[in-house]
Specification:
eleven-stranded mixed sheet; seven-stranded antiparallel sheet
């Protein structure tokens, strides 16, 4: 298509282009009714071959632009990522030796591509997803330079924010991938087949293509691996359906909008109904101007159709005489693993399309469409190893359906068109069905064997190398031999290299040393890095010292400075954060409240500091102002709860006259809050005071006096507890509530647990969403709610009714095992001190049991009302 589409960014642009699409659609329908779309069904067929490039290390080689420049042929095209490429053959008459002709044409083009790639020490590979692919290989820089793909990428990542988009696939190794701007769109390559339609029979032939899609895919699957995970037999299907979603357009007030890559919703009575449905369901995202459209017949409809990705897509062509032609494009089949296998897949699909008139329209449409759609999902998930709903309301193994029905029907269809050597072209499919070895089954069996004595990365690389070699040999995948570990060079079996997590217990760490027969293990930080290690001796010392988790081993003792850098920064769960009062301020594009996020009133609670680092890393403020502030700087530097006295008990009548460390810090903090209200006047004032508990606990909100103090609290899926200033004298929130601040203390969880950082980010983002400061998508809101609810035994509103005050000489020791909001009964043994057993004063829920050396409160009791 001559016109290069552009991103439609405004409602006016989309409305204007939508009108052009409707105008084109009306003209097409007029021509079809006049008989100007009548053609021989299958008179012409076409094929588009996508592939990928790998370097000598079996990693993606980003040379597509260079290869395109060196091959002066319009049939070659760059694809979404710079390590993708495509060769599109011109349509051929479906007769005689067409399969041999297309095979030879593709082989010549693949040879030319391989020769051009040699100068870059790279090779082409036919595969749906590259097994050796790493997340670093699909950074935004790998996106192709073509404006169409740039526009599509921007559209798919526009409304929801890069850090809110996730891909999820449940399989042997479940995948949950948070998108960080990765070009996931570019990891998927396919073999696209075209079949010319006759408008008079187009609806029936399109419905037939829908029915046969699933079993044909079952025989062709070869994409089971992605980022080291063993997923669906054809992982391209769920991954493409998710990546082509456009954020903000999936939900409406009436119903969930279908994904742009979809199977379909029902049988069609008229093939044009496919376009009717798509135009009604989706706003245009790419388009052109009216002047451009005027010079290219039906280009508006074609551009729109190119942004909807049905697995069987109805395509429009324009002939030299101006008449239209229709074709169905099969998009579900993967590239690879050999050209011979691909041509067998093509022979199966084209042969079945040629057989369509031997099956009545009534028999096809009598099948339940929902179950036919389910067949497709099963095929993608399980390949040849699934069962399908089939004619006669029977559920049959898909291998039997192929062997007994579809392969013979395809042979008959090919022979009816005079295709030579039909049985020979179908032989690779027949062999796969007979021995059960699809590309995916070969890959899954071999990767398991390879990983038995190699690391995951080494095994993935070895598998990819073998695929390149076998693929170039031309031997069909059903006859590929196993790659047994004995064929590899001898190597010791690697240790179990899963890192220890910061919240793993020391008991587990000690067991891991014995299981793996090692003396050190890597440790994964909250940021996902594994740049630290923990030794057997450290774990033994930690257990003897009464520590509980691995994360506590990496925290400095409370009487020693933290791991600070020379420029005055502190380490907070793997993040280096400047040790300064004002962490960061972000101003929004519109009017809104002033929101202050405070962390570090207690110097050993670095989780709140890490929350600030996470949030401000990608915070997009739509309205208002968000300010990050640090509390007790000397205590943060020393990694101790406080220096002289608890800073969160310092905001009282004695503050102005005291000379202790915390008094100076408290006065400086209040001055900063006053300055912020001066700099941003006439705004609602909100403050969220981020804390962590000494013991493991669910996240919860502590609110002064009434819920009206923090009116968004009922929207949060966590426990809420009310307190009075006399129960917690000298707190910051008690000090600023009379100054018209909406404020609450948020206990994010155990101060040594990485999940406390995740909790903090989730709740603060939910609050910012409710305030209209930084909006979230419904998907992200549901995910945050699910994660927070899973941690909390209750989400009810309660009130503090008892505080157990302690002093340094009480020798208070909390009994192990108590968790905040755990139910307790009056008289239950909770702790010990110098006087003996400390018993629960009333029925209720225990809150903040003390598991650290410093503190003035042993525990609280809250009662629900």
């Amino acid at each position: 298509m001559a016109i290069d589409p552009r991103l439609l960014t405004s409602t006016e642009e989309r409305s204007t282009f939508q009108a052009l699409v409707l105008k084109d659609l009306a003209k097409v329908e007029d021509q079809l009714r006049e008989g100007r779309g009548d053609r021989q069904s299958g008179g012409l067929v076409g094929i588009e071959q996508e592939l990928q490039f790998v370097d000598a290390d079996m990693r993606p080689a980003c040379i597509g632009t260079d290869i395109r420049a060196s091959l002066s042929d319009p049939t070659y095209q760059e694809e979404f990522a710079r390590f993708n490429f495509e060769a599109a053959l011109p349509p051929e008459k479906f007769e005689g030796n067409v399969l041999g002709l297309l095979h030879d044409n593709l082989e010549n083009r693949l040879d030319a591509i391989a020769s051009a790639a040699q100068q870059y020490d790279a090779r082409p590979i036919l595969c749906g997803i590259l097994p050796s692919l790493d997340l670093d290989d699909i950074r935004p820089e790998t996106l192709t330079g073509k404006s169409r793909y740039k526009a599509l990428f921007e559209t798919r990542h526009a409304d929801d924010g890069l850090h809110h988009r996730e891909y999820r696939i449940r399989a042997m190794d479940d995948l949950v991938l948070r998108d960080n701007g990765s070009v996931v769109d570019g990891v998927l390559t396919s073999l696209q087949l075209h079949w010319q339609l006759d408008y008079r029979t187009a609806a029936h032939h399109y419905n037939w293509s829908q029915l046969i899609m699933a079993p044909v895919l079952s025989a062709a699957v070869c994409s089971p691996l992605f980022l080291g995970r063993r997923l669906w037999h054809e992982t391209r299907i769920p991954l493409f359906e998710q990546v082509t979603d456009i954020p903000g357009q999936q939900l409406s007030a009436v119903r969930r909008r279908p994904r742009r890559a979809r199977f379909g919703e029902s049988w069609v009575d008229d093939v044009v109904d496919v376009w009717h449905t798509d135009v009604a369901d989706y706003e245009p995202v790419l388009g052109c101007g009216e002047d451009e459209a005027a010079g290219s017949p039906f280009c508006a409809l074609q551009l729109f159709n190119g942004s909807v990705y049905r697995w069987n897509r109805v395509c429009l062509g324009v002939e030299d005489d101006g008449d239209v032609s229709l074709r169905v494009e099969s998009r579900s089949l993967p590239s690879g693993l050999t050209l011979r296998d691909e041509m067998a897949n093509a022979a199966l699909w084209w042969g079945l399309m040629a057989y369509a008139d031997n099956v009545s329209k009534q028999d096809v449409c009598k099948l339940n469409f929902g179950r036919v759609r389910e067949n497709f999902q099963r095929s993608a998930r399980e390949g040849l190893e699934c069962q399908h709903y089939w004619f006669g309301d029977r559920v049959r193994p898909v291998a039997d359906i192929l062997a007994e029905d579809l392969i013979p029907w395809a042979a008959a269809g090919l022979q009816s068109r005079g295709i030579t050597d039909a049985a020979e072209w179908l032989a690779p499919v027949r062999d796969r069905v007979a021995n059960g070895q699809t590309g995916s089954r070969w890959m899954l069996d071999n990767i398991e064997a390879l990983r038995s004595d190699r690391t995951e990365a080494e095994a993935d690389k070895f598998l990819t190398d073998a695929m390149v070699d076998f693929g170039q040999s031309g031997l069909p995948v059903a006859r590929w031999p196993a790659i047994h570990p004995r064929t590899l060079s001898a190597a010791p079996k690697p240790a179990h290299d899963v890192p220890l997590r910061a919240n793993d217990t020391l008991a587990l760490a000690a067991a891991r040393f014995d299981w793996d027969e090692v003396d050190t293990l890597p440790m994964q930080s909250i940021a996902g890095r594994s740049d630290r290690s923990v030794s057997r001796a450290q774990v033994k010392d930690g257990i003897e010292a009464g520590l509980t988790t691995v994360g506590e081993l990496t925290l400095p003792p409370s009487d020693q400075p933290a791991d600070n850098t020379a420029d005055g920064s502190i380490d907070a769960f793997g993040r280096q954060v400047p040790l300064q009062r004002q962490y960061k301020i972000v101003e929004g594009r519109g009017d809104g409240p002033l929101v202050v996020l405070l962390a570090g009133l207690h110097g050993n609670e670095k989780n709140g500091v890490a929350v600030l680092a996470d949030l401000f890393d990608d915070l997009d403020v739509e309205a208002g102002v968000v300010a990050g502030v640090l509390g007790n700087l000397p205590a943060l530097a020393a990694h101790t709860r406080f220096v002289d006295r608890d800073m969160n008990r310092s905001f009282d009548a004695t503050l102005k006259d005291r000379s202790d460390c915390e008094a100076g810090e408290a006065r400086a903090l209040l001055e900063m809050l006053d300055q912020l209200t001066t700099d941003y006047p006439n705004r609602e004032k909100w403050l969220i005071d981020l804390h962590g508990t000494s013991g493991h606990a669910p996240p919860y909100l502590s609110i002064c006096e009434t819920v009206d103090t923090f009116p968004v609290a009922p929207k949060l899926p966590i426990p809420k507890v009310l307190f009075t200033p006399d129960q917690f004298p000298g707190t910051l929130v008690g000090e600023i509530v009379p100054k018209n601040w909406h404020t609450a203390t948020f206990e994010t969880g155990c101060l040594s647990a990485p999940v406390s950082v995740t909790n903090g980010v989730a709740v603060v983002r939910l609050i910012l969403h409710e305030l209209g400061v930084a909006r979230l998508s419904e998907t992200v809101i549901h995910r945050y709610h699910d994660a927070l609810r899973a941690q909390s035994p209750t989400r009810a509103l309660s009130r503090f009714t008892h505080r157990h005050i302690i002093s340094d000489d009480d020798q208070f020791r909390m009994l192990p095992g108590f968790v905040s909001f755990q139910r307790i009964e009056k008289g239950e043994h909770l702790a010990d001190d110098r006087n003996g057993a400390v018993l629960a004063p009333a029925d209720g829920r225990i809150v903040m049991p003390l598991y650290q050396s410093k503190g003035q409160t042993g525990f609280y009791v809250a009662e629900t009302f």
